[in-house]
């Protein structure tokens, strides 16, 4: 049996004159691009360019809606009603949809960004607001969320197809949540450790925590497109997949 | 023969806690609502509420994209490339589309706001950028523009259906453009004068300027939803239409 | 002995074309104006006008810095480091200082707005960040904070003069904090109840909670400048003060 | 006689997670830092860090206020009243003042950014609005403007000390204005040409245009802090100064 797995990456996070990420170079190493929609990052012109880039590379286009906090890059939790979450996701996903539509493509998935993603992982009502926004725009869109999270539950309950996400370079807690970035051991700083964690998650459905292995569902792997060794890590993970007989999904 | 005319009004221009306009009360007096999309006014939650209000009242929903200038309410000209105009219109119209789609409706028209509208009236390239954004999102959307403007020309050349707009309470110059707001005689401050101007435009296809009558194509009349006598004027114009045998288009 | 008390009101919360509050009319009923600084409300032009208005009315000028959340009017809590709180308060207070300086006045106090105020009431580190920003700009500025709060403590520890604030129309919990707005009994909706609560706080240093009276230090009373009966309430509270022999501080 | 000249550089133009410029490395090569104030670039935390960096390096601190257009990096002209220019400059300069004051320094100069700078070079009323904002905040602040511009005139007429700026790598037109960026020959792309232009401007008070040499007053030289060869050019210009017996002003 062939193991098939999706690799996703956040894209289009530049803004005006400000550049972040190696979008062009990363495209050949991934299956799915989560494109920022102007709230935490991205602007209309960047969105258009990034959509074009993804479509040209046969990479699936997803919306990556965030909180309206450009200074904080959408990483600061803030108190949000489920209705506001619904409104913000619908607005941003619609904006991205327009660029995709204009280029002859379609939005394949939605993955909330940063604090919105994290809050929706544990807040049932917020998760529901997000899932309903996606469903009401187009029930064929796949909802990406943290494996085992309330967001995945909400997506399934709402009637959406979901995709459980795991992180290559983040460590996990015994309850399946990510170790918060405020803690010293939140990251796997060694590339080999990150690759090994992914392989284990994909092949065995398990991840190691400080209290032993736990089960995890790995349908899509998040890798980062910024930072100095983003490209080399993308190459490593793809090489490891090849060696291990894991096939990266390719929508081309 | 029955004269048929559309009446449109800018809507959804509140923002957060800030309120502008009598949207609810105006709905019964108009055919078409131009809903702000978050750049010059409006926010995601206001957009959702305004879309619901319009659909409930069988009023046609249009996007009302503006410049990214909330402090200036989108009324300050700024140098914009045609590509930026394309990007901004596509982004905002897409965002509104999502709310309309979620509510089971559709976007019927797009009318640029304020400085974007005025610049597109005289700038051929800018007008083309806007028209292409609308066309690429959905070629069935109708483009609203100043009667006789470059925006109307660009819409027609792009292959869009267009709708020529006239203003009830603004005065016109001999070349068919609006008298700039910076000039003292830019407004018709008397309601009866405004009503008479509209009737003449609709029935005779003419408007009076300081250099005599000129021809004008009046397919949709813009009336204002804010200000103290917005509602009374809306009633007056509708009454005058009834008396003159002009029928307001009703999409219900 | 003469009881002396300050009455403060949030001011300058309009934005661009958007209007909130009866600033002009309220000025004669208060001692201190807390002027919004452009993050949660206000813009540079509104700030200038409001500073002029306050100085003309011999009302003490204060900065009213908020969170960078215009859509949410600065009322949504969000995770903020003490350094960010320091930076945001310093930025906004400095901006207001410039307008006051240009008009020949001086900033007399700083009162954080909304969520920033509430978070600083209970978060010691955040409170310290705010107090240090004020102190570093000018140690003569008075810090306004919720009576009994961490913000008042931080101000005192930093070396600032502080002013304990009470609310006319909000109810209190047994621990001295305000009943959250999310609870049904958070407001005193009857004007007489609000007036009586204030008189009791000022004369007896006590406020009633659902678990009996608690002590409270009332150095400044917050009244609201928006809403339909803002002016009539301002008149009522001033009349009640006169009748009870309480003197409103007047800086003129 | 010793020739003394100021070298200035735009600084603090990063925003949130977005980085622009080599601020730290550039500090040792310049006399004056123009620090962005949050409208076109910069945020409160970046401002604080940049002020600290400049003071530590004995570099004079200046405010670099821009138009409220983060997407366009303040480079897009937009229609602005002189009052708005006054308000925007006062707001931003005040915000920067607070950080400088908190660190025990003072604002030495103000240099408007981008489109605001360019519009003020030719628009007398706008220039006056800017000059008055600076003067009203503190008449000891020096106003930086394009040599020969309306901004320099307005500064002098208002009673401010001014400093005439020239650009190392921009070409000039016969009327003394910069060749617009939209024209192909707007830049001197060769470092030696740029260095030679500066030396000629400083020593001879002349600059070459396509219609021959014109007079120019070179009191401060603008060099750029971003781009790949910013540092090497900074070193070249300083070396050339040393060789030519021109002394860079050093405020340390």
UniProtKB/TrEMBL annotation, chains A, B, C, D:
Belongs to the LamB/PxpA family. Keywords: ATP-binding, Hydrolase, Nucleotide-binding. Gene3D superfamilies: Glycoside hydrolase/deacetylase (3.20.20.370). It holds the Pfam family LamB_YcsF. One of its GO terms (biological process) is carbohydrate metabolic process. GO terms for molecular function: 5-oxoprolinase (ATP-hydrolyzing) activity; ATP binding. It comes from Fictibacillus solisalsi. This is 5-oxoprolinase subunit A. HAMAP family: PxpA (MF_00691). Its EC number is 3.5.2.9. It catalyses: 5-oxo-L-proline + ATP + 2 H2O = L-glutamate + ADP + phosphate + H(+). Catalyzes the cleavage of 5-oxoproline to form L-glutamate coupled to the hydrolysis of ATP to ADP and inorganic phosphate.
């Amino acid at each position: 049996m062939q193991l098939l797995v999706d690799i996703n990456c956040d894209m289009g996070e530049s803004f005006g004159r400000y550049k972040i990420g190696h979008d062009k170079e990363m495209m050949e190493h991934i299956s799915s691009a989560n494109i920022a929609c102007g709230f935490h990052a991205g602007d209309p012109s960047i969105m258009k360019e990034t959509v074009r880039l993804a479509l040209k590379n046969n990479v699936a286009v997803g919306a990556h809606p965030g909180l309206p906090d450009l200074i904080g890059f959408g990483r600061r939790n803030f108190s949000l009603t489920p209705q506001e979450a619904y409104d913000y996701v619908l607005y941003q996903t619609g904006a991205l949809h327009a660029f995709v539509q204009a280029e002859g493509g379609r939005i394949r998935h939605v993955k909330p960004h940063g604090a919105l993603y994290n809050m929706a992982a544990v807040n049932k009502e917020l998760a529901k607001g997000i899932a309903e926004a996606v469903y009401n725009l187009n029930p064929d869109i796949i909802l990406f969320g943290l494996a085992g999270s309330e967001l995945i539950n909400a997506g399934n309950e709402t009637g959406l197809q979901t995709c459980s996400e795991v992180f290559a370079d983040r460590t996990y807690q015994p309850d399946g949540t990510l170790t918060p970035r405020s803690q010293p051991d939140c990251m796997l700083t060694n590339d080999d450790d990150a690759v090994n964690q992914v392989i284990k998650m994909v092949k065995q459905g398990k991840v190691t925590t400080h209290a032993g292995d736990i089960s995890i569902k790995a349908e899509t792997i998040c890798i980062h497109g910024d930072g100095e060794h983003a490209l080399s890590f993308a190459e490593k993970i793809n090489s490891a997949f090849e060696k291990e007989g894991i096939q990266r999904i390719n929508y081309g």
